[in-house]
Amino acid sequence: MAKIVEWPVLKQAEQMLGEARLSMGLEDFPFKSRLSMEPLVKFWRSKLEANHPQNRLIASEISQYVTKHPSLLDPYEDVQTFLSEHSEVITLLLSGIFPAVLSKKLIGYASAPFGIAPFYTTESMQLLLSDPNSSIEFQQFGEFDKIPYSIRACLIILKKHYGVKLETVLPFLFRVKYEDTNKEMFYKTNSMLDYLQVKVKGTPPKISPEKLNYLLNNSKDVSLWLDTFSPNVFHFEGLFIAFMNDVTEVETLSQLRRILLAPGALLNNETARTIANLTRIYLQVENVEVGISALDYPTERSVAHRYKINYPIVKDEHPFVGSLVRTSPYEQACRQNKTEIISDLRKIENPTPIEQALVNNGYRSLMIVPLRDQVKQVIGMMELASSEPFAFNYLKKLKLKEILPLYDIALEESRKSVENRIQNIIQEQYTNIHPSVLWKFTETAFDFIEEKENKGDMASLRPIIFRGVHPFYGQIDIINSTKIRNKAVRTDMKKNLVLLYEVLERVHQYFGYPILQKHLFQLKAYLEAVEGEFNNSLEASVADVLREEIHPLLKDLGKKNLAIAELVQGYMDKIDHDLQIVYQARKDYQDSINALNRTISNHLDKQEIINQQIIPHYFEKYKTDGVEYTMYLGQSLLQHDQFTIHHLHNLRLWQLKSMIEIHERIKSVQESLPLHLPMSYLILVYSSSLSIKFRLDEKHFDIDGAYHLQYEVIKNRIDKATIADSKERLRKADTISIAYLQEKEKKEYLGYLNYLINEGLLKDHVEDLEIKPLQGVQGLRALRVAFNH
């Protein structure tokens, strides 16, 4: 039965409502308010002539009470005084609002206007507040909760005194947690203001439409509102009625929608836990755990780590690590692409490790829900496990199905977010998609998305082609690098074989094993081969025999005799620990190449930053025994800028000057290198513009069209070019060679060279050389000039 609030429940109610109202600024509430039953008595007096006999009876009793106790109509500032004088009639007065037959159903209360503590609650409200296993928390309810409480009082003034049609319901949202069952519910208050009166003292202000609009657009400016609706003019009398409605499903759905549709919803552990908890509340299944993981199906290996979305119920027992057994409910859910329900995990015959792990952790029932992308491919899995058998059924499955698209979207978008980040890293670190042309790829991808929406599977990516671009090619290389390396290989191998032969000979003298004699013969043959005509395959053959046959044998024999062990260790100390061979001359060669390549690359990278600011262009470099690079410049490469012929001439001159700068840096570096390597510098000039096309299969740009294939031929063979009527190579140490086809190219570059000679950077002798035909390319010539330093 509904009743006046008892002391323990009163304190609980004060705490619950006080927390909510104080969060909105009630401690600074400026308006005077008094409890009054006069509006409610007026309602009952209107029922004295009603046709409804019950209402007439109640109205008659209240009327008789007022006749005997006229103070009931007085306003009370102290609620306790009112209760002490009129407690016997309160239930009767409120019976029209809180019928006795609904007291166990309705959760409601009555309080003084804007009061913290209710003086009356329904029986259901009493049970909620007095339950020792429940805890009640106030929850923010959207933007409305941010409106100060004093301004809400002003909104009521606007509605009741000025007749402005406004939504002035004051909703509170409470979260109730039951510790014994782990159950959670949401309740929202629905306020009833019928018996709340706005009283006026003096002359109230006039509110024009303009003033009203200004007030409503400044709904958090307390000073503005209180200056307009002064507490000296307005006050409140009557009572405040509120009902608490169960909005668990609506509220959890609202919160799930907000969280799941946020970017990267499943990439944060805390957010994932919140989603799991809200899912449990929404389904209203007690003692349920929820897990969500990303996957690709079909698959033989877990790829959840690729997406950073891996929240299984049983930690360290991800259901998709390793090959799945076809009888596993997880595999069946993926294969059939539909939800699987296991009513009792203990009754599964031959459970797989994941089901056994669930049982070992106290779970009895399980629901496995595939999560899918837009084309219905399985991209993830949601698992729900309960400690109770038969916790899941067809109705729970249907209820979850209603909101399942939210989880699908969240997982797909979160996966894409991770994939995009991975792609960005690949873009920056591994692929040949240069930043200068990334805009074109983005534009093409966007067009493909739009086309796919219109044409479906008939849509296709359009080719990425840049037309009318001017090519640049440069090469800084080591003269006779193959011969130099072969010499280093010979030196190392000869030293290695001599050292090993001496050791093996002494070991053979001690042990006399036939196998040692065989290896001595083999080493002698290798020494003769190294001294003769060199074969590259010999390097690998010798290394394999040493590592796999001779060295293991020596180590084993060393275990039998201390002197032999010391002899073998002395040899091992003279070879490379990791490669198990003498690797000194080759190391000097490789270290020298690496240092030179770093010097060249670092200079080009720094210059490239500057050049991109002058005019965006495509740039790509490769490291071999030296460094070579390709550039393309032209209007079609530009998204916004304007290309002019001056940009072309500027970069051509830069290319020449950069060769001189690189040469100076190399000279400086070579002083500290273990090996001096002669360097040559080559530029290929090609005045005709051409088209380049991105090859999707090879992931790089190639010349588009057969007409300009001669450029590729020249570029690929120019480093082997020789001068006509001689055996002399075009590339020559400490010189720049400029290969060209047209007379106008010669004239342009002679102008650049004369300028650089005048600057003292190049020697004043420029050779004009004819080059032997390269695979059918006739008329190729070159200018060659030496550095001045």
Stretches with pLDDT under 50, minimum 5 residues: 300-305
Distance between the termini: 107 Å
Q: What about the largest sheet? A: 9 strands, mixed
Strand content: 15-25%
Number of helices: 23
In total, the number of domains comes to 5
User: What is the number of E strands?
Assistant: 24
Average pLDDT figure: 87
Could you give a short description of this structure?
It is built from 23 helices and 24 strands.
Structural commentary:
The protein is α+β, with helices and mostly antiparallel strands. The chain folds into 5 domains: 3-36 and 75-246, no CATH class; 250-423, Beta-Lactamase; 431-462; 481-587, no CATH class; 589-787, no CATH class. The chain has 23 helices and 24 strands. β6 and β7 (183-192) form a beta hairpin. The longest helix has 36 residues, at 394-429.
How is the secondary structure organized here?
Blueprint: E1 3-4, H1 7-22, E2 33-35, H2 38-45, H3 53-68, H4 79-93, E3 108-111, E4 118-121, H5 123-130, E5 134-139, H6 149-160, E6 173-178, E7 183-192, E8 196-200, H7 209-216, H8 222-228, E9 234-238, E10 240-246, H9 248-260, H10 269-283, E11 288-294, H11 304-307, E12 310-311, H12 329-336, E13 340-342, H13 353-360, E14 365-372, E15 378-386, H14 394-429, H15 438-455, E16 465-478, H16 481-511, H17 514-531, H18 536-558, H19 562-572, H20 585-614, E17 618-623, E18 627-633, H21 645-670, E19 679-684, E20 690-695, E21 700-703, H22 709-717, E22 735-740, H23 743-758, E23 762-770, E24 781-787
Parallel strand pairs: 2-9, 19-22
Antiparallel strand pairs: 1-4, 3-4, 3-10, 5-6, 6-7, 7-10, 8-9, 11-12, 11-15, 13-14, 14-15, 16-18, 16-19, 16-20, 17-18, 20-21, 22-24, 23-24
Helix pairs in contact: 9-10, 9-14, 16-17, 16-18, 16-19, 16-20, 18-19, 20-21
